[in-house]
Amino acid sequence: MYIIQNITAGPSFDVVTSQTFPRPATINFIKKAFGAGRLVIEGNIIELVAVDAGSAPTNALAFGIGDSNGGTNPSPEAPDYPNGDIIIRNNKVRYLDGAFNSGYLGYGSDISGVKNLQTLNNVIDCAPSNPLRNARVGAATYFNNLTTKGVLVQGFKSDAPTKTYDELQTQADDALVMAFAEW
Fold first, then answer.
1. How far apart are CA 98 and CA 95, in angstroms?
2. 116 found inside a domain
3. Which pLDDT does position 78 carry in this prediction?
4. CA 46 – CA 176 distance, rounded (Å)
5. Closest by alpha carbon to 36, among 111, 108, 125?
6. In the 8-state DSSP scheme, what is residue 129?
7. Which residues in the chain land under pLDDT 50?
8. Residue 84's closest CA among 36, 132, 18?
9. What is the pLDDT of residue 100?
């Protein structure tokens, strides 16, 4: 992704880049880049198609925001994140008609290329572990995302597979355990 710095006469323009090109450089392919400066996804009820691994070509997904970066780290050129501040709150995600099977596929969210992500107060009933996922996100905050049975659903950093995000409830639980451990 390049930032257009100056539009000159005709079909020419100057771009900001960290690469040194001989002047003038030729760019053979340009693709439109769409991004959201600020986006709020709020108060939706989303029912995923209930399919298992044998019958689904891809995972079902309630919320997906991508950067088309193909699993790599952000570009060395600015901007690193095509999307700015994203808030996902007060949504309900489940399988169609409330059906549930541990073999079903589908995630609540898969977010990438976002500068600031807040995911809070959602009810997520998805079979795969870690149904709230992100990658290549500047700062991510997860708070009070639960299943219908009241079990906490933590955010998961899919580009660092052992990383789940702490939140107030897990920090309070840890403090309580440590307080009893000192007795």
1. 5
2. yes
3. 47
4. 35
5. 111
6. S
7. 29, 78
8. 36
9. 78
Quick one: three-class SS letters along the chain? CCEEEEECCCCCEEEECCCCCCCCCCCCCCCCCCCCCEEEEECCEEEECCCECCCCCCCCEEEEECCCCCCCCCCCCCCCCCEEEEEEECCEEEEHHHCCCCCECCEEEEEEEEEEEEEECCEECCCCCCCEEEEEEEEEEEECCECCCCCECCEEECCCCCEECCCHHHHHHHHHHHHHHCC
- Residue 51: how many other CB atoms lie within 10 Å: 19
Is 50 part of a structural domain of the chain? yes
> Does residue 172 sit in helix, strand or coil?
helix
pLDDT of residue 141: 92
Count of domains in the chain?
Answer: 1
In a domain, 9, yes or no: no
Token pair of 51 as six digits = 């399919």
Q: Do the domain assignments include residue 26?
A: no
Per residue in 65-79, pLDDT (tens digit) is: 877 665 555 555 545
Domain extent, residue 65, equals 33-181
